[in-house]
Specification:
The structure holds two protein chains of two kinds. By secondary structure, chain A is of the alpha+beta class. Chain A folds into three domains: 152 residues, 2-Layer Sandwich (D-amino Acid Aminotransferase, Chain A, domain 1), CATH 3.30.470.20; 69 residues, ATP-grasp fold, A domain (Dna Ligase, domain 1), CATH 3.30.1490.20; 177 residues, Rossmann fold. Chain A has twelve helices and 19 strands. In chain A, strands 1, 8, 9, 10, 11, 12 and 13 form a seven-stranded antiparallel beta sheet that branches. Chain A has a four-stranded antiparallel beta sheet with strand order 2-7-3-4, covered by helices on one side. Chain A has a four-stranded parallel beta sheet with strand order 15-17-18-19, with helices on both faces. In chain A, helix 9 links the parallel strand 17 and strand 18. In chain A, helix 7 packs across helix 11 and helix 8 runs parallel beside helix 9. By secondary structure, chain B is an alpha/beta fold. Chain B has ten helices and 14 strands. A seven-stranded mixed beta sheet of chain B has the order 3-4-2-1-5-6-7, with helices on both faces. The longest helix of chain B is centred in the middle third of the chain and has 14 residues. Chain B is globular. Classes of the chains: A alpha+beta, B alpha/beta.
Amino acid sequence: MKLKEFESKELFRRVDIPVSKGILIKSKDDIPPFREERLLKVQTLAGGRGKAGGVCLVRDAGEAEKFAARFLHSTFMSEQISEVLLDEKIEIKQELYLGILFDTSKRTPVFIYSESGGANIEELKQKNPEKIKLRELVYHAGLTEGDLDFLLSGSVLSQNVLKKVREVMKKAYLCFTRFDCTMMEINPLVVTTASDVVAVDAVAVLDDDAKFRWEMHFPERTHNRPVTPREAAAHLIDKDDYRGVAGKTFIDLDGDIAILTSGGGASMTLLDALVDYGGKPANFTEYSGNPPMEKVEKLTRIVLGRKGLSGLLVAGVIANFTNIAETLRGVLNVLIELKPDFPIVIRRAGPHDDEARAMLMEAKEKYGLNIHYYDEKILLTQAAKIMVELSEKYKMLNTRRADPIVKKNIRKTMVN
Amino acid sequence: MAILIDKKTRFLIQGITGKQGEQACQEMLAAGSLVVAGVTPGKGGMEVLGVPVYNTIVEAQKKQRVDCSIIFVPPKLAKVAIVEAIEAGVPLINVVTENIPVHDMAYCFSLAREKKVMIVGATSAGIYSVGKAKCGPIGSGKAKIAFTPGSIGVISRSGGMSCETSLVLSQAGLGQSTVVSIGSDILMGAAFAELVPLFEKDPETKGIVLFGEIGGSSEEDLAKYLLERRKKGKPFSKPIVAFISGRFASSLPAVSLGHAGAIIEGTKGTRDAKVNALRGAGVVIAEVHHDIGRLIKEAISK
């Protein structure tokens, strides 16, 4: 989970990293009267807000109110903004950069330090890479004095400041390990005109897999945009029933082919193929781990609860343990209820798939459903191709039906 | 021949008394794997499907040699279990457990490097030397039908797609030597660059198929390895075909990770970067997944 500046600073305070003093503003009533220069900073998840105009110098409560009103509860950098931070204005002598993250090639934490911090750090990496120091750490040894000596060698800071920076580095590493950060960053770490060292901005990303031992908890966030009602409904499915997973991941998209997939890698491969063949997914969601029929039924209802669909694709790799008949019964229940006329392509194999085939074929006959069932003999990405072709045919037929002349002819044929 | 595991490999299952561990044990025995011991602290003296259970790995090692340990321990306790296996000197550790905190895995990887132990996983569906031995849940139940013995090595970042990839090959009339599910966590154990040299040395393997994903750097690391081999005048000797998923996923809203990510990773991690790096290093890219069968067939018959 990526944290916003004010949340990251809460972590920093817990490990005694000095941070600029700020007041969190959620509505204009939170702004206290003041009469000196302060900074108002929009709280975003994305970086680069300063360059996008999300940081502003204000001189009194009136100005702060004006700025806050412009951003609060509106969209900025495609994010819904619910907080701004009224921060003290620090007198800057020098900006430093400090970051810790994992290097996926080396499988080890890397400590990054530069005495040319600030917004242009990425350009610095291109132009003056020697100004950025990188140090691979040995995880089970921790951050050693040797590591710190390396990072601070060649420093231009005074002895007094250097000592303080060294302390901040140790605390930053403590923050990284203690709070299970996958990355943390202080940019800028400011040396003030009074020779203090203060974190003026803060980024931290927490490892969701370590949630069971997080010391602090933060409100859920999935995307930069607010969660849609369908997404919220899908996320609720797993709440009261811990058997299997259904709807944990649900993303509303703007296409016309409804999607029910199983398994992360398979889902991605399937959607790549669907899009390659010219299809447009209406959503992305998965179920896996042998969920009961009821959960699949709930998820199917959400997936199909949308107008203008031209197909439903239910697909996954050969299941080890998921009961194919039971899970597809959940899908079928909704199909019988809604009786859609668009094509339904199902590619599922695994335990009880013979039973599933018989059940689907019977329903196809009885309710006139446009079901196309395949087991492992048709490959996953071939199923995506079939879906797109059938959906195109369906749409063509529908356009023709909507055509007044064709409509008349159809009616004529029907009357005759 | 095969890589990592074969008929003679002596397996130990950590977490054998759990539901998943027991299920895998049954499937492994059925596939012909030599499961010699299980470990669950406090349950020493029990038996699971005829396999003796010990309290610790060291206790088990007093009775017999252990070549590979499979971890089925819940995520909160996985670090302790993996560290136990590393310190006991088990040369190969296959971590099946999902959702292990990344800091716990970072600790294990740094220790494993020091002790020269290979870790495959976490979030691995297992390793399958088809027709010889398997560890982990890979190829269990009905999924068995996807695998046939043969001469293509498979390495996959997705557990499910290790099965589907093998199915594509089997339908194209190509069997598999060993299928390795390497997981796709932020920090991964042995990945493409570490495993392709093993397939190169395996006389049975004629070609290698990879299933890659966006994120991380294992595809770029492989490209770098292959280019270094070329530079040394010893180009990699077997054909490699790769499919990289995630073209669609790249279009989904994502949260940027700040400057630190950009400084370390640069443009690594995107599908384009991976595809370009691999192509530049001589790997054939399949644009649609079910094409890998045809492409590797062409490549090995050249």
